[in-house]
């Protein structure tokens, strides 16, 4: 399970790094922090899309998916996050 979490963490970090509007991605395994503009607004928009994340200040979002998360769920999250960032920016 640990090896799988490490691999999925890499998928998550790589995917997040490619999303426009994210300034920095950091973390270990599946526990990720990302920096962007207006984290509270993006967090609220994600909630309307059915995604729960935690804003940690005005520019940071914490992500801590369960260890049973699948790669397809991670890819869906990355897509929804990009959608939320674009909506908040418009």
Automatic annotation (TrEMBL):
The keyword Transferase applies. This is Unannotated protein. Keywords: Aminotransferase, Transferase. It comes from freshwater metagenome. The lineage of its organism: unclassified sequences, metagenomes, ecological metagenomes. GO terms for molecular function: identical protein binding; pyridoxal phosphate binding; transaminase activity. PANTHER family: ACETYLORNITHINE AMINOTRANSFERASE, MITOCHONDRIAL, AMINOTRANSFERASE CLASS III. InterPro entries: Aminotrans_3, Class-III_PLP-dep_AT, PyrdxlP-dep_Trfase, PyrdxlP-dep_Trfase_small. SUPFAM superfamilies: PLP-dependent transferases. Its cofactor is pyridoxal 5'-phosphate. It holds the Pfam family Aminotran_3.
